UniProtKB/TrEMBL annotation:
Keyword Endoplasmic reticulum found: yes
Location in or out of the cell: Endoplasmic reticulum membrane
Keywords: Endoplasmic reticulum, Membrane, Transmembrane, Transmembrane helix
GO biological process, one term: response to bacterium
UniProt keyword Transferase, yes or no: no
Signal peptide: none
UniProt protein name: Reticulon-like protein
InterPro entries in the record: Reticulon, Reticulon-like
Positions of the Reticulon domain: 24-154
Record Pfam families: Reticulon
Organism of derivation: Ambrosia artemisiifolia (Common ragweed)
Topology with respect to the bilayer: Multi-pass membrane protein
Transmembrane regions listed in the UniProt entry: 34-50, 57-76, 128-148
One GO CC term on file: endoplasmic reticulum membrane
Length: 154
């Protein structure tokens, strides 16, 4: 293939470049076959586990956390009995600055979303209205092809 054969719709950039030319583009275009196959296998395994076994994500996460908590508890108790070191668990704590930064980011994004929604509702931004309408139709079509649980797991 020549370089002009790899261009999409007579553009100056390749499809790989249009998709960002990174790992995402490599996976989508099957350039990194190992990563792509790994993602497909993990997706298939999750679908099999959740859809076919009627397992839910909440029950799965709950069981994994219960198993982890039980292992850590037994490890700590046995360490006390045998005079061994306890499990190396870091002391996690959110700082006031981190919480303030996250709250500020969420507030700014929400205000931006509300501002754009306001402009669309008043008819000030017809291009954005068409984009939002197209995405909502796309979501509706994809949603009608599958159930919500399968869509979320995928």
């Amino acid at each position: 293939m020549t370089s002009s054969d790899r261009l999409l719709f007579n553009r100056q950039a390749t499809v790989h470049h249009l998709l960002g030319a990174g790992l995402f583009a490599d996976v989508i275009l099957w350039r990194d076959k190992n990563v792509t196959i790994t993602i497909l296998i993990i997706t298939l395994a999750s679908w099999m586990m959740f859809e076919k076994s009627d397992y839910t994500l909440l029950s799965y996460v709950s069981n994994v956390l219960l198993l982890l908590l039980t292992i850590l508890f037994l490890w700590a108790k046995s360490a006390q009995i045998l005079n061994r070191p306890t499990p190396p668990i870091p002391h996690l704590q959110l700082s006031e600055e981190t919480v303030s930064e996250v709250a500020t980011i969420i507030r700014d994004r929400t205000n931006m979303l509300l501002s754009v929604s306001y402009d669309i509702a008043l008819g000030k931004d017809p291009k954005m209205f068409l984009k939002v309408a197209a995405y909502l139709v796309l979501i509706s079509v994809i949603g009608s092809l599958t159930d919500f649980r399968t869509l979320c797991y995928t």
